[in-house]
Amino acid sequence: MTDDTDVDRARALPQIQAACPACGARPGELCTSHNGTRVRRHNTHRARPQPP
């Protein structure tokens, strides 16, 4: 079950504006698990760049 509040928090992170090299999420998309089946609802991969 996905908690919309958690998803909203993850979408508000500044690094969501960049593509993720770890899972291939495009800018604006949430990161996924390594096999792409589960969305990371609380955070992004550390490899996703922070904006300046």
Give an overview of the whole structure:
The mean pLDDT is 86. 15% of the residues lie in helices and 0% in strands. The chain has one helix at 4-11. The chain is mainly α and 52 residues long. The chain contains 1 helix and no strands.
Secondary structure elements and their pairing?
Layout: H1 4-11
What's the short version?
The chain is an all-alpha fold and 52 residues long.
How many distinct helices?
A: 1
Helix content: 10-25%
Give the uncertain stretches in residue-range form: none
- Element pattern in H and E: H
Shape: globular
- How far the N terminus sits from the C terminus, by CA atoms, comes to 34 Å
State the major sheet: none
- Radius of gyration, CA atoms, in whole angstroms: 10 Å
- Quaternary structure: single chain
The average pLDDT value, as a whole number, equals 86
Name the structural class.
mainly alpha
Number of DSSP strands? 0
Portion of residues in beta strands equals under 5%
